[in-house]
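Still learning. Any example?
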Amino acid sequence: MSQQPSKGISTASSQQEYSEQMKAWHKQLPACAEQILEQAKRKGATAAEVSVSGSSGLSVNARLGEVETVEFNQDQSVSLTLYRGQKKGHVSVTDLTESALSNAVDMALAFANHTAEDEYAGLADADLMAQNWQDPELYYPSDLSVDSLVDRALVCEAAGRKDERITNSDGASVFAGDRTSVYANSHGFLGQLSGTQYSASCVLIAGTGEQMQRDYWYDSQRQWSLLAAAEGIGEKAAERTLARLNPEKLSTRKVPVVFAAEIAAGIVGHLMGAISGGSLYRNASFLKDRLGEQIFPDFISIYEQPYIKGGVASSPYDREGVATRDNIFVKDGVLASYMLGSYSARKLGLATTANAGGARNLRISSTGEDFAGILQKMGTGLLVTELMGQGLNMVNGDYSRGAAGFWVENGVIQYPVHEITIAGNLNEMFKQIQAVGTDVDTRGSSQSGSILIEEMMVAGA
């Protein structure tokens, strides 16, 4: 195996050389995976699986009109799981030299020798492996110089700081990177995916003293050409930050609540956590043994689409090599499927749903209203735009989070609010969803429009 690429880089010209070096090195990853599997078999493993990944990226951060940092990074790693019968050993390393990989195989086998047998352990079934998939079209390389990223960061921050009420900045950042990953196992499966990622963000501060408020905006795309304009990101960050000035507190009350699109996916995320195999077989989920029950209104469906071309989380196979498929987790309000990998499926006496590693391109169905329509439907209540803390009990569904946002009357935003807590129980919150907007935030792997919930407790001053 050839030597790993060097880690340092400091000029635009060498950045191009570095990019070419990384591309050439990434082409070696399949051979690296096969070499590890061959060593594992030769040394006595009865089964093996390995993930090899490499990533590279260029990031620029500008603050107060000056460039603060320019960084080039490259990382590589190997995650190796070996089996001796029903005993399993796992090792992860970042050194991909031949001697280091040989040592990793030896260590994984040694760990397997000292672990207890687990009747559910092992590779996913061989007949479930993905075959003959189409390119998900995740890779859109661009020959970007350091100067082009610097210019974008400076323009972004300058656009955000035009208003004199913006008194400080945490900076604007721009990133361009790529990642290649290979998964292979002793069934003979080998899959390789490469993807690019481009992003830009801006974080601003308005006001002074105890009246300071901070907010941000960002965009993320697989194609550089689709990334939102730098000026637009800065202006949006400024608009959001200024809107938070002079917030008020609320008295404790029960009111309708709208979760803005940029945080609404978290509600769907709580569902997925509750129906994930690990939570279920550990008896740590309020949705255990509830397949077939109506848990949402009948206008709600929640599904994944792993084959979307260029999707944020598209993949023809999961982390075990199992062929992915379109899954419907909630259909017409009914819990239709859990989210399982092969291990959790065996523990539960079920079949894998090809979700080792999670759901891919998750969506919740919309009821057709745009953002303004969602507020009009709510009438008077709370619009939440920020959540703080991790107040969720997955066992019983109790939900309590610090929050900030805006008070709304007759469908119109009146003033910002802060230092409040919203609380409820996910069982009731799911059932009380009244609308899901068309204003879908497409930047993450879980995507949702704004979500209106009929009533929650809001605790304030």
